[in-house]
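Structure tokens please, single chain.
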Amino acid sequence: MNKIKYLLPFALLATGTVNATANAENPFYLGARIGADHFGDSGLSDSGTDKDDLAFGAFFGYNIASDFAIEGGYTNFGDFDLGNGSVGQQAVDLVGKFSWDLNDSADIFAKAGASYYISQGDGGIVNDYNDKGFIPTLGLGLEYAFTKNVSARVEYQYYHDVEFDVHGLDLDWNTHYYGVSLVYAWGAPEPVVIPEPVVVPEPVVVPEPVVVPEPVVVPEPVMVNIEPLTIQLPFMTDSDQLSQESLNQLAPIAQHLIDYPEAKLYVIGHTDSTGSTAYNQALSVKRAAVVGHYLAAKFNISPSRVVEEGHGELEPIATNKTKAGRAENRRVSVFTPGLTIEKK
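Here you go.
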């Protein structure tokens, strides 16, 4: 246990200086871990004088969803004394990582999977001998997020029934690891900022003066202002299907486009924050496309008059922390600018 005291300054430094954290919006992440381990619980109870050592390693992961990732990594667990020689342990893990949010910045996680270990002898009768094999591994921990790129973990991981069966020496033990990790994540698409459409009024056309034998009074054209129209179409969770209520809401917009052929239509898709940023961006584009295609097919509106965009989860109009708020954010904004036209 004397070696563990050297870990404490590093742990304080790591947790005190990190000012950023990984976020499940980023699909890829890479981390480094350092901590202490204990070899025990089985055939080592009467062997060795020091069954604790420092451990270090690295890992790489991919967030399949906001609450589940696949993670692989390597860890060197140091060694324990046999009196006449020592045995060290290394392992390569492949686990599934399940996460549960505590708040916007922190979550707890559990890991389960398989580990391929190598137990290596050094000195005495075990020098240059090794044993290897597959064993199960489980883990628990806490991850704290400061920004979307860097995070810190505190975790415990258990490795079941590591063996060293060589040269007439048959040992087996369980390894307990506990330590801290630094994680860097990347890969989330940058948000696309689309400028608001600028409505330029049509110029007033002044007719050329007409010279006639007798004065003729030419009336100036009467210009009419057509008000803009805006509606919000709701969508179900993870759906891009239009409801009958939404189809009814689109009727006035369609009639407006038929009555004023010079009018354009802007269709902006939105989502709540459920799921990854990349998935929500793609879903918002699909929702906008469904509305645009419906108007073009049903009312013979030229696609060149419809601008379709997806803004994903970037422009909520309500909180995403409640069911009602998320329902408001799952929408497509349909907007046609105002016009100034000549009265017929």
